[in-house]
Amino acid sequence: MMFSGVIPWDGLPVWMYHAQEPPPSHKYDPTLAGITWVDLVFPFFLFALGAAIPLALKKRIERGTPMWQLVLGAFGRGLSLVAFAIYDQHVRPYSLASNPTTVTWQLALLGFAIAIPIWAALPREWPIWAKGLIRGIGVAAAIAFLSKATYPDGSGFSKDRNDIILLVLAWMATFGTIAWLATRTSITARLAVIAGLMAWRIGATVEGSEAAQWFWWDPLPWLGRPEFLHYLLIVLPGTIVGELLIGTKPPEGDTGEPVSWHAWRNYALLAVTIAAIPISLVTLHGRYSLLWLIPIYSALLLVHRPNSDEDRQVAQIARYSVFWITIGTLLEPFEGGIKKDPVTLSYCFLAAGLAGLLLAGILAVSRRWKWVPFATVGQNPMFAYLAITNLIAPLWGLILTPAMSAAVAGTSAGVWVAIGKTVALATFTALAVRFRLSLKS
């Protein structure tokens, strides 16, 4: 997410940008079909959010937490993310000024610091009054900051100034949790919810229909709108994977003789799952969608007849993922081809399948050799998201001189700068986790 947002705006191949905003003009064209790797960043994030839901709630359910508390907590978390979406957009340096100055960078850093007492995960052993005091100080500081801040158009605080990505995440965290709670004992019921959402989304394509009126309803733009719910077609498949990560029984009817997986098989699965992404991007861009399913189905051969529980989990994740990929591929001709913007059904299902398949490949290797890349970054996503604009960008802006700016203006240098910023973000986030500084909704 960091890298795709800070790469040079010009001079790179078309596949380095959003498919519907190609260079050199980057003018939005909703008629362009296809996706690029940049278009997969957000749905992969949503898929991870879905997988985290059962992992996060399992222990609370086992402790006997009442269902009403879990549902209320889901809405509370959603409202917290809405507040974070509004706050984050107001303290970004490029929201505060079109051409940030030293003062702008300093204000952005201040905005980052103010967010910490509001959303930091405070130790459980702290007394309630101490937590409330810290939260109160942070909220008071945020109110003071936002009441004084002015923006390039001359306006002040506005609830309609928010981060659309975080707003979508708020809806997904809320309704994804509720959907999982309602179907946690039945995969069939969850598949029925997915089918119902899919049917609603199809009905919404008919202009003037009642389905369209409800789907595109927009009474409170700052709070979100029902159309965000089509992203549940990415989140809910992720919840299935989350349950598989917790542990499942062997699939019914699996009576074949177990055969151990050798190392070459794990590496081959990882290679196939990584290769699936560029293969899909190239073939879908050329509208030869069905041809690319041939190498994808080779993943099913590699996960045939798993032996251990870990191998069985990998196999089940891969099988579900190939299923979603198949659905997404068959839907590609619908709505004028696969697109991220406007979101198409094929995009949701294909992205969910690719995310799950890649995870299966990574698990096949990392679970055996204890290689877990970027784990600490994934443990602190809110910190990382805010740090992109309010820590890395301000620090770079304060350090950068006019001469340095000219030196990195070229395309190749700009790519290396983007890599450096991404590594810096991962490092800061990992250090924050190590020192127990995490932001939570």
Task: Describe, in plain words, how this protein is organized in 3D.
The protein is mostly helical and 441 residues long. It has a domain at 164-369. It has 18 helices and no strands. The protein has helices spanning 2-6, 41-62, 67-91, 93-96, 102-119, 128-148, 164-183, 187-203, 210-215, 232-246, 263-285, 293-302, 309-330, 345-369, 375-378, 381-399, 402-407, 411-434. Helix 2 packs across helix 10 (232-246), helix 11 (263-285) runs antiparallel to helix 14 (345-369) and helix 12 (293-302) runs antiparallel to helix 13.
Task: Indicate the topology.
Blueprint: H1 2-6, H2 41-62, H3 67-91, H4 93-96, H5 102-119, H6 128-148, H7 164-183, H8 187-203, H9 210-215, H10 232-246, H11 263-285, H12 293-302, H13 309-330, H14 345-369, H15 375-378, H16 381-399, H17 402-407, H18 411-434
Gist?
This protein has 441 residues and is an all-alpha fold.
Task: Name some characteristics of this structure.
441 residues, 18 helices, 65% helix
Overall, the morphology is globular
Q: Give the structural class.
A: mainly alpha
User: Are there runs of 5+ residues with pLDDT below 50, and where?
Assistant: 248-259
Q: What is the helix fraction of residues, given as a range?
A: 55-70%
Biggest sheet overview? none
Strand content range: under 5%
* Count of individual beta strands: 0
For the record, give the distance between the C-alpha atoms at the N and C termini, rounded to a whole number: 20 Å
- Could you spell the SSE succession in H and E letters? HHHHHHHHHHHHHHHHHH
Oligomer: single chain
